[in-house]
Amino acid sequence: MTVFGGGDPIFDTQPRAISWLLQEIDNQRLALPDFQRDFVWDPAATRDLLVSVMSRYPSGSLLTLRQSPTGNTFFAPRAFSGASQLNAASSPTLVLDGQQRLTSLYQAHRGVGDARYLLNLGGLIDNTEALHVENLDFDKLVSFEVIKPGRPVQSDDPQWQWETWTFPVHQYLKAPASFESWVEQAVAHHGGDASTQLKRRVRLAEIRGALLSPLGAYNFPVVELDETTSIVAVCKIFETLNLGGVRLSVFELITARVWAYGQNLRTLWESAQQDYPVFVDFRVDPYSILQAVTLRSNGSAQRSEVLNLRAENIEAHWATVVSGYAEALAFLRDQCGAQTEKWLPYSMVLVPMSACWDVIQALPTKKRGAALERVKQFFWCTIFTTNYDQGGNSQAQADYAKLRDWLPKGSGDAPEAVADFSFAESQIATARTNRRALYRGTIAALMQEGCLDFHSKQQTTATQMASSEIDSHHIFPLNWLKGHYDGSLSPELIVNRTLIDASTNKSIKDKAPSSYLQDMEVGTLGPQRDHILESHKINEAARQAMFVDDYAAFVEARTAAIVDVIETVTGKSVTRDLTGLAKTTAS
Length: 587
What we know:
The protein is an alpha+beta fold. It has 29 helices and eleven strands. Strands 1-9-3-5-2-4 form a six-stranded mixed beta sheet.
């Protein structure tokens, strides 16, 4: 057992020959963790790896994890693609990094998979040049034959092999004398006098030493983690390995772990998506479901705690959390204006909400209605205090502890965002669209308040947003502001955005607000123009500012209208501190 202290690593490094690694796979002593993605390399990539091995070039290291022989393992193992299935009693060492390379080499050497790899030696047989890798044309030397179902494999024909001096890679490690036997038969097939045949045998012996030997003797540096390595350390190591690529999914890690205990987490998630389409619509990350399960099982949403989830935790809380998450998400969509994933300010806020949704479900009808109103207040107060911008895991944990009592009763300690709500008018007046939660929350609030589509004149819905390409656009066009406004207010203020369909936005282009407002009145909107603008909280004062193209006056007027909305949805007072806006520098 390796322990921390004195600079001792938690791993051991050993060089391991390809032949040894492949034999370990055959003997079921080396396997993959079940979370690893399927083998995806194409034959050309495998061919390139074989060339690198034959050239004795570095091909990276392998990372493995020893499993406890007592069966107390992190991950369920699965066999390499092309290898025989593992038996139930096996407790193999797992390859954490190097799956694609080892699978490629295994299939090439064992003659399984979609291709057979060939060494075309004809150009070297009667050639007297030294066999230096720098002088070899590997494009001609190494090739592959793609296996086509129902058709004979040409490279399996011994006569063809001898005639073309083609040696299949998978025959090299098949038996100790496989290459020598092939040499004798190929040399005899081509005939010639005794001197010619002797020269060819000698040349093929040189070829074996220079080019074929690395196919079995090439050593990979293998970094082996011992069985005491924590799941948190394994996850961190993966993240370090994958800084430039796809990050390891915690959900995949947990899936592999609990599989060994009879819990198929992947199937559970697939079923949840089928039962609740809202998960698919909002592209919910199943990791957030696991966070809510962890909250319910031990009161924490921290990554380290999620990584230590056990099968019994999932079995006890999965169904409750999935149902609660789906209902909470649908509630935010239908009652809080978050019509699509794009306009959901925080997905993390659903973690504590879903973890305690069962207390709402258990209430009688009248009390449930009051509890749902408190859900709204919690949601909106959280958005406008931006409580989840930093430390979301800790905030979820703190909120969950209070929500379970506060939501059903309305008494006791309210969550921090509700109890300590503080928001000033100047915060929304100067906030730009890079303030993600405020931006999304403002647009969602407009949808909750019933903003109308400029094209259909109907309330904006997710369906309309997709069909009419409705998105957030500038009210005072960006290009117009660049050419006509030289004040300190940013063109990218949240209050200068609203939901506009593609057709209307195209007609606005870079026109002055006074110009396109006139176009709207004489066009399709007619007398409904002001009513529709009002639904977007572009009140009369804001419209008057638009008629004279006064951006600062518009920002001040629309800020006041949006602040009224914030007070309505949060049930809280906003500090009115906006003075001299035209001279205020945007933050």
